[in-house]
Design the sequence.
């Protein structure tokens, strides 16, 4: 069953299942965010967090909520959505659920850039990650371009460059003093520790800025899942389209990495989970964004709840994402979808 | 194969060319080894090197450096390079995938995770104990990769992606563990670079049996893989037990990779590039390919180690990093040259 919307310039059809799943996910997201606001080493009473949000409440409540928890949660949601979108776009374009930016080496570029920035300037992780990701993207796409952009070559070259960059990151890690190395190791797995409103602003404004483009590529992206011949006979120009989607996907990934670090497996898991929930053969970008946000929120909340040791959120996304990945691979292979 | 070679004049010619190449490669390897003993932060004269072998003097600083540091380092480079390149050749033949490599397929990643667990949970930092956990981790990841990458009709790309995904998983899990303990991080961040410095003769002696078993298994496998080159049905009709042959090859790979990882850390790309170079000299025969791979791999590791000691790289760049920095571009070149047809 599906509902359709027809306007002179736009026609959409939305399945009832998608709407139902979407509503449940949004409900989960809201509940999760509220839960994350309340939980932590400083516990809020039943209503005090609400009164802070409404503009009242004591100073200390206000400080904890507005300066620490809220920015952290909002950053987690934004970064998760970026990871989810980016992963789903790459996976659909490459016709391969394994080809997410964290598997094929784009996150390695962002990490490497950020590490270089830490060493050279002592801070400025944001700029370093952005520059690193964009540089890697230009390098990978440039090297993979040969009579157009073929997904397989892009994946393989991304892998190769990613491995070399990971070696460079390891090298940088060994060339610093023990204290910086510990910080860098934490950053390398991804953490949402001590985020402020600047991060929130960055990730959400970036997301809003890129949203129209994501909406625009949604329709051709759905066709890219078909064979090359069929896609070009529909009048789509493959290489420019792939170039555009790659660029967009990398920008989203870079945005997420520079605010939350290279959280493993979020970009990887979000798309397949969304497609499993609404199996209608479409890219499910919106679903992937929501699932990504949920995953990062859950991982970050879990990381705050472990007493005494400060584990970064990336540990939890790896622990959740790893088994999910192996399960997904088995299901996908059994179905012969790879 | 040998019968064909003996009867056709063209392969006769190729066989003699191969022997000449073998001689050249061996001689260059010996030359490189000599250079590796001679140069470093403290150049040592040829005379002194000779003396340290024939008339060792424990009070001579040069002799101490040579016998205590450079010689173990050279031998480690030999073993690591030969083992990695040999297992690369085996994997490429076994999976019929020109891009297969113990690093890319996650075998080194699994072995590394085993070693990290060993350092972290048990507080052990002796490579002689590492080797068992490294081989366990390597075996698990090999089985996973082959299972994930070959269920149904496997494509080379799928195998590689399965390996990359597993590598990412092992890396993330390993890094997570390290965050909990500062001491482990300090051990790990130098070990992971694939350095050959600080290796002692005792370590080499402890690991030598593993390399020997791996080499023997690899040698046996090279005959089996030769028979399997014409297709599994042909191999079966020749009386080969294909499953057993595959199992032996996997054991050889795991043995060689586990020993190398526990000695020198995870080193990527050597196993990828070297077999391609070796095939130029050896032709399709797997036995020769394995021999050339081992020799060229050892040469590449010695070269990487020697280059890492140049002042340009600060005098102490780890061989594994050099291999990765050289290997990334080599992979790109391979992919661009092979195009889509070969994938």
Sequence:
């Amino acid at each position: 069953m599906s509902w359709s919307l027809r306007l002179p310039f736009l026609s959409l059809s939305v399945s009832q299942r998608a709407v139902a799943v979407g509503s449940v996910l949004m409900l989960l997201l809201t509940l999760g965010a509220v839960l994350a606001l309340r939980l932590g080493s400083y516990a809020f009473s039943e209503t005090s967090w609400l009164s802070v949000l409404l503009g009242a409440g004591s100073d200390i409540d206000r400080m904890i909520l507005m300066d620490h928890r809220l920015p952290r949660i909002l950053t987690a949601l934004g970064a998760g959505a970026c990871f989810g979108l980016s992963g789903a776009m790459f996976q659909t374009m490459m016709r391969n659920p394994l080809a997410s930016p964290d598997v094929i080496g784009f996150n390695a570029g962002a990490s490497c850039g950020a590490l270089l920035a830490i060493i050279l300037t002592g801070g400025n992780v944001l700029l370093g990650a952005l520059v690193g990701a964009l540089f890697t993207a230009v390098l990978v796409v440039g090297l993979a371009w040969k009579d157009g952009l073929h997904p397989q070559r892009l994946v393989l070259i991304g892998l190769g460059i990613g491995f070399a960059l990971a070696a460079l990151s390891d090298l940088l890690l060994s060339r610093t003093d023990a204290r910086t190395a510990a910080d860098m190791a934490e950053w390398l797995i991804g953490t949402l520790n001590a985020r402020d409103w600047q991060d929130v602003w960055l990730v959400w404004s970036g997301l809003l800025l890129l949203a129209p483009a994501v909406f625009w590529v949604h329709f051709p992206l759905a066709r890219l899942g078909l064979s090359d011949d069929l896609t070009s006979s529909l009048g789509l120009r493959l290489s420019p389209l792939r170039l555009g989607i790659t660029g967009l996907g990398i920008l989203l990934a870079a945005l997420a990495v520079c605010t939350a670090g290279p959280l493993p497996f979020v970009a990887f898991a979000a798309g397949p989970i969304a497609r499993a929930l609404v199996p209608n053969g479409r890219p499910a970008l919106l679903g992937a964004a929501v699932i990504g946000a949920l995953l990062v929120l859950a991982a970050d909340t879990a990381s705050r709840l472990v007493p005494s040791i400060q584990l970064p959120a990336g540990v939890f996304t790896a622990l959740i994402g790893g088994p999910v990945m192996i399960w997904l691979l088995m299901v996908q292979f059994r179905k012969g979808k790879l | 194969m040998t019968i064909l070679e003996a009867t056709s004049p063209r392969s006769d010619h190729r066989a003699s060319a191969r022997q000449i190449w073998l001689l050249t490669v061996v001689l260059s390897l010996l030359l490189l080894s000599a250079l590796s003993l001679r140069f470093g932060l403290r150049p040592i004269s040829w005379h002194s090197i000779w003396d340290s072998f024939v008339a060792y003097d424990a009070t001579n600083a040069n002799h101490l450096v040579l016998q205590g540091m450079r010689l173990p380092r050279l031998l480690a480079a030999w073993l690591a390079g030969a083992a990695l390149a040999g297992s690369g050749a085996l994997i490429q033949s076994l999976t019929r995938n020109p891009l297969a490599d113990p690093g890319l397929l996650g075998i080194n990643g699994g072995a590394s995770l085993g070693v990290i667990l060993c350092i972290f949970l048990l507080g052990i930092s002796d490579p002689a104990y590492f080797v068992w956990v490294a081989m366990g981790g390597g075996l698990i990841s090999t089985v996973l990769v082959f299972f994930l990458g070959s269920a149904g009709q496997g494509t080379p790309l799928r195998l590689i992606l399965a390996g990359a995904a597993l590598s990412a998983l092992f890396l993330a899990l390993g890094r997570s563990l390290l965050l909990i303990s500062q001491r482990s991080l300090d051990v790990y961040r130098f070990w992971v670079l694939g350095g050959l410095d600080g290796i002692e003769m005792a370590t080499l002696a402890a690991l030598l049996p593993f390399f020997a078993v791996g080499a023997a298994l690899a040698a046996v496998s090279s005959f089996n893989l030769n028979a399997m080159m014409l297709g599994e049905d042909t191999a079966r009709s020749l009386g080969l037990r294909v499953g057993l042959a595959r199992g032996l090859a996997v054991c050889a790979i795991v043995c060689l990779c586990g020993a190398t990882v526990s000695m020198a850390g995870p080193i990527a790309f050597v196993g990828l590039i070297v077999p391609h170079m070796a095939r130029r000299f050896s032709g399709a025969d797997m036995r020769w390919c394995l021999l050339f791979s081992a020799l060229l791999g050892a040469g590449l590791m010695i070269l990487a180690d020697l280059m890492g000691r140049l002042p340009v790289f600060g005098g102490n760049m780890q061989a594994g990093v050099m291999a990765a920095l050289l290997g990334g571009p080599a992979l790109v070149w391979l992919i661009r040259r092979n195009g889509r047809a070969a994938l």
Q: What stands out?
A: The first helix of chain A runs from residue 16 to 38. The beta strands of chain A are 2-6, 11-15. The two ends of chain A are 28 Å apart (CA to CA). Chain A touches chain B through 55 residues (CB under 8 Å).
